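Here comes an entry:

___
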Amino acid sequence: MLLLDGKVASQAVKKELMIATGELIDQGKRPPHLAAVLVGNNGASETYVAGKVKFCAEIGYQSTLVRYADTIEEKELLDKIAELNKDDTVDGILVQLPLPKQISEAKVIDSISPDKDVDGFHPVSVGRLVQGLDTFIPATPFGILLMLEHFNLETKGKHAVVIGRSNIVGRPMSILLSSHIKYGNCTVTLCHSHTKNLAELTQQADIVVAALGRPEFVKANMIKEGAIIIDVGITRVDDISAPKGYRIKGDIDFKSVSEKASALTPVPGGVGLMTIAGLMKNTMNAYLRRQEQVID
């Protein structure tokens, strides 16, 4: 079985972006600049944002972290986003989700300039993705494509089953895998909580992307021999024997599935790292599009 190691694949993206950033600086230009907005002190969100800021530093990007208490009013957050939209030194804006209940996530996403929407969530970005036009791809699906590319996994003509229909992962992943692109051209089945006979569908799949948020849901008896398995799930499961009192589990039962799959992502150390890599490539593209240049 091939372990789809996110550390290895993300390191390749990191090296590529370090070189590109260095060339910009050598030309007397400023580096790309990512602005992240974090509301509250959610543990998972803190970890995600810290990882993004660290990645920026390692590849030579400039980053700005804007923090607010979870009591912030919606207007104040929208005003800050409007300020970042107008700032010519900022190339990409991300607002870490989830947000407190008094703030409309849809309104916040819609307020980010499509030119700086490096998370790929804006309706303009989504519409362009559906139409097969150049756009910002949501970071997790983009990261999965980068992983498929790094390990040179053939997708053309294969049957892919995507479990989960979120706007962040499932829906865009199903669109990308069915698109006329190098690591697409699949026949795709999109499954969700109302799908009947889910196991029958996954047993037919050459590729399974699990993004439903239920730890170790997909067992070995649900997949066919030699399938490629992409685990997007990340859930904290209480475990008093663990140093932190919990363990991180994916949606795949790694131990049993690894005995049947031809390729499998670990959790942690798989798709999560590639999500940050996808975000950083989006940020570079946001920077370069202002100069009418895009890297693939």
The mean pLDDT is 95. The chain has ten helices and eleven strands. Residues 139-272 form a domain with the Rossmann fold fold (CATH 3.40.50.720).
